[in-house]
Design brief:
The complex is a heterodimer.
Chain A (H helix, E strand, L loop, with lengths): L2 H5 L1 E10 L2 E2 L1 H10 L4 E3 L1 H5 L6 E3 L4 H8 L2 H5 L3 H16 L13 E6 L5 H13 L10 H5 L3 H10 L5 E2 L7 H14 L5 E8 L3 H9 L30 E9 H6 L6 E10 L13 H15 L8 E3 L7 H13 L8 E3 L2 H4 L6 H15 L1 E2 L24 E2 L4 E8 L3 E8 L4
Parallel strand pairs in A: 5-6, 5-7, 10-11, 10-14
Antiparallel strand pairs in A: 1-2, 1-8, 1-9, 3-4, 7-8, 9-15, 12-13, 14-15
Helix pairs in contact in A: 2-16, 6-9, 10-16, 13-14
Chain B lengths: L4 H15 L23 H15 L5 H5 L4 H15 L1
Classes of the chains: A alpha/beta, B mainly alpha.
């Protein structure tokens, strides 16, 4: 085995359960078609939310019943259900099998969430505690609400025997998950890491954001138009639920078992703007964002001009303009030159801690399939970023891609940026 | 009203199967069946079974009594005893 092969990290499996698709094939087709997963949400209307649209995976209850028996379901909050479906799909997509008796000592799990099992907290834990009925609560609340619920459940389903952990860094969570897995393999601590993130579909998760007036509210009668990153009429993000999972693997391990390789992780970085110089709990310090992007490029030995596509964080808030400006300053390319830029949340909405992983799956599929998915609802580009109009595809573009950059930013002024490269032997 | 141990056993069988792992769901529940070793019921699930029992029989089962239960037969005996008391 070449030492280099042990340190190179490739992607050998994908799983996704998103508002517009379930599974890799369906997801690629939805991305190419620019299919929105945003729908009217009567529950939010009944609850008096200003935002009455959301992105939810179709038929989640039916999928849950087909993937998990009733006893297993007892211990799963809905966000864990989403994560486990994507993780099992990813496991199978990677060509791995599940041994009922022997742990897979070479595989780790890093699977995060921004919020976690708030549905169980809201519907069971808090009401029963407040009513003085703790004795009647039942045994499953801890395993449903613990911060590591998703990674722990996935570990049991597949028999992972390496490190099993859940990270959380708000909307940066699951891009960070991939990087934590990438570094674990680079350091020789794992041969494979199943990494990703999941976020549930509970109004309890979204209520605080509606209260902050950061959710979309002006397009309730036109759900597919509600998520408008980069647009002059953007009016907040559309809440969403979902999960994304990837199998990161050392090139040596992938070669040993003859695994199919989607792409390679070229490098990446995470940091925090320190909530200084414009950075706050809810806004990014521009210098922190730019440093993160530049550190990711250095780690990947990639020059700005080599990036073919940026998959932006771009949530449809005021932050979009700042993000585009940060990319421009971080890349420092001559006027008239810029990578293509698309906004996956225009199709998916914003699934918080699951967003990065779903969007990374989208990046890998674009890299493999030589296409760039359209950005919806930005025909009326915000005037401050009019200069980047030629770089934003409104229809699917067929193009050979070599390097794709994905960034995610989160409350707490935290940033993550990962670069994927077309795999070359 | 459940009056015989057999009636109690039938009702308990349904409750225990609700919480048994899928790979043990078909096991025959005999008086000597060990709830943990044979039926795969761990201690958290035992709590859920007891709550199911309390709902089904309208009784309260003390935690100390539950901790002494090892077999299906002992569970039937405990619930029968409590049910008689409730009647």
């Amino acid at each position: 085995m070449k030492l280099e092969d042990a340190r190179r990290v490739v992607l050998t499996g994908l799983g996704v359960l998103s508002p517009n698709a379930h599974g890799v094939e369906e997801f690629e087709e939805a991305l190419r078609a620019g299919r929105s997963g945003i729908r009217a949400n009567p529950e939010l209307t009944n609850l008096g939310f200003a935002c009455q649209v959301a992105g939810l995976p179709d038929n989640l209850d039916g999928l849950r019943d087909s993937y998990f028996d009733s006893v297993t379901q007892l211990g799963m909050d809905r966000y864990t259900v989403l994560g486990c479906i994507a993780a099992l799909d990813c496991w199978r997509d990677a060509g791995l099998t599940v041994d009922p008796d022997i742990p897979d000592w070479d595989t780790s799990i890093v699977f995060g969430s921004g919020i976690g099992g708030l549905e169980t907290s809201g519907k069971v834990l808090v009401p029963m505690t407040d009513a003085g009925r703790v004795r009647r609560m039942g045994s499953v609340v801890p395993e449903r609400v613990m911060a590591s619920a998703a990674s722990a459940r996935i570990a049991g389903l597949v028999g992972a025997g390496g490190q099993v952990t859940s990270n959380s860094s708000a909307c940066s969570t699951s891009t960070e998950s991939l990087l934590l897995g990438y570094w674990a393999i680079r350091e020789g601590r794992a041969q494979r890491v199943l990494a990703g993130g999941c976020e549930g579909d509970s109004p309890y998760i979204w209520a605080g954001f509606d209260a902050m007036r950061v959710l979309s509210r002006n397009f309730n009668d036109r759900p597919a138009e509600a998520s408008r990153p980069l647009s002059a009429t953007a009016n907040g993000f559309v809440p969403a639920a979902g999960a994304g999972a990837v199998m990161l693997e050392s090139l040596a391990s992938a070669r040993d078992r003859g695994a199919r390789i989607y792409a390679e992780v070229a490098g990446g970085a995470v940091n925090c703007g320190g909530q200084r110089n414009g950075g706050t709990m809810t806004a990014g310090n521009p210098e922190g964002v730019q440093r993160c992007i530049q550190a990711a490029m250095r780690s990947a030995c990639v020059a700005p001009a080599q990036i073919d596509l940026i998959s932006g964080h771009l949530t449809a808030t005021q932050g979009d303009r700042v993000e585009v400006r940060n990319w421009r300053r971080a890349l420092c390319l001559p006027d008239g030159r810029f990578p293509l830029l698309n906004a996956p949340k225009s199709l998916l909405g914003h699934a918080l801690g699951a967003a990065g992983a779903m969007e990374c799956v989208a990046c890998i599929l674009q890299l493999r399939g030589h296409f760039v998915h359209p950005s919806l609802n930005c025909e009326d580009l915000h005037p401050e970023i009019a200069w980047c109009d030629p770089f934003i595809p409104r229809t699917c573009v067929e193009r050979e891609l070599r390097v794709v950059a994905k960034a995610s930013f989160g409350f707490g002024d935290v940033n993550s940026c990962i670069l994927f490269r077309k795999f070359n032997t | 009203m459940l009056t015989t141990n057999q009636d109690v056993a039938l009702a308990l069988e349904e409750i225990v199967r609700r919480y048994a792992p899928k790979n043990r769901a078909a096991i025959a529940l005999q008086p000597e069946t060990h709830l943990t070793n044979d039926a795969g019921i761990d201690s958290p699930r035992m709590i859920d079974i007891v709550l199911g029992v309390e709902d089904r029989f309208g009784i309260t089962v003390e935690d100390d009594d539950v901790q002494r239960v090892r077999t299906f037969g002992q569970l039937v005996e405990l619930v029968s005893l409590r049910s008689e008391g409730a009647n």
